[in-house]
Predict the 3D structure of the following.
Amino acid sequence: MSHTSTYGPDTATVSSLPSADAPPRHRWWILAVIGVAQLMVVLDSTIVNIALPAAQKDLGFSDGDRQWVVTAYALAFGSLLLLGGRIADLFGRKATFLVGLVGFAGASALGGAAGSFEMLITARAIQGLFGALLAPAALSLLTTTFTDPKERAKAFGVFGAIAGAGGAVGLLLGGVLTEHLDWRWTLYVNLAFAAVAFIGGTVLLRRTTRDTTATLDIPGAVLVGGGLFCLVYGFANAESHDWTSPQTWGWLAAGPVLLAAFTVWQTKSSHPLLPLRVLLDRNRGASFISMLISGAGMFGVFLFLTYYLQQILGYTPIETGLAFLPMVAGLMITSTLATNVLIPRIGPKAVVPLGMGLAAAGMAWMTALDLGSSYVADILPTLIVTGLGLGLVIAPAMSLAVSGVDPEHSGVASAAVNAMQQVGGSIGTALLNTLATSAATDYLVGKNPRDPAVQAHAALKAYSTAYWWSAAFFAVGLMVSVALYRRGVPEQDPDAAPVVHM
């Protein structure tokens, strides 16, 4: 599941400016409108996962290709998020918000009507593109609508609760729609969300002043987007080609080159997408890396555990969605505990590594799942342990990513840490799917691939491989977070932008 925190680069700049006008009379209705839009974006990271086995059976795509249904959305969303915030600055937040809603709804309709794998992937990528427009505009509108500090705190609390519940809503809604209607309705349902938000936004939102000084960093967007795509595509190609094939290592080599060029360009651009000084603080850099690693491990487990529950144990889509809820509950409990109790008292250097260790243990525990595993005795404990660990990682990393940032850069930092999670998920899903598919192929050598028992054990081998590698990701995260986070309680900056935990 995806837990995202989405801030446009413009958020902090707007929040630091005094409002010349009185706050809108219908501002709490505006919060509802923005909340509906954000719920749509967040739940789309999980709602399709539950429907993926049904979609694969209907459209007939391979196990090697299935990861692109998840990756296309996350990659487009993560790599274009910073640019989306700049577009909201340049063309106005209300207009960007409404265009994002229309585009997201159109892409959802296209995906729901998809008659081929290629059409579905295209639609998911377009969803991510318009989501990258919609999310930063929504946060900026929320900041400019609530100018009173007390009201703003309440508004962000409500917004955070909506966003935090989005992943669980997506799991349950995806199960209900897939089981009682069709997997295509997991995409069609976005039209209802978008219609409500669009009508409310058109009526209630005020036109915002454009920032005429804002400039789009097109070269930066092309370089970072291209570099991330090359990395993900290279990992995905390793399954269909080979690690020694130019189709694999060529793309994997091009990715770091483009990202290095992006880094150099950011030092020269007058309006960089990501000012490099934002990354220099140790706690902030550690938080970015922690989100990248946790995204890689977390996104992958949802994909493979979904297939395990439905194809090995015969769970219905609804039962699959319900099965994940204890993990979500554990994540929300430790997120709250970490943010309100642990970090203010002992700091991140103990908390985040503990979370990484728990998540690694939970993933390693999952490798013991077999054809006869029961939910209560075998699956539930692994989900709870993993969820408790993820909560200790994600909430502190999200908070510390913007802690101490200059007001004009806090929005950029918030958008960047969200992008790190999405990009980590894209790379992790592609890599884990490649390794899992290769493990299944190796297992089938010398065996009858048409034997249902052989097929089931091959699938178990694939899932176990993915769980082991996810555990390895979190183990690396443990070592990195121990090395990078500072000792002690971090200083609190009252001017930092609010953070939404999702």
